[in-house]
Amino acid sequence: MISICLVYSSTFLMMSILMFFSSLNFLYLDYSLMLEFNLLSVNSSLIMMTILFDWMSLLFMSFVLFISSMVIYYSEEYMYGD
Length: 82
Prior knowledge:
It contains 2 helices and 2 strands, in the order αββα. It is α+β, with helices and mostly antiparallel strands. Strands 1-2 form a two-stranded antiparallel sheet. Helix 1 (4-29) packs antiparallel against helix 2 (55-78). The two termini are 17 Å apart.
């Protein structure tokens, strides 16, 4: 049976690899992407959320996801007998 820790660890590792190669691609193409979402609209007031994806943010997300996947994998191995 596959444990939930192994599933999350593998998913985070694959996402980390994808983000890493995306960051290299963004760096090579000198590309950035800005996403804006309307979170709340009341009368004439808008609350918006803006997310910026550039090579540095993607590289940072890649490292964070890689470290998270290794922590989850280690915790599953460490807590195996408990």
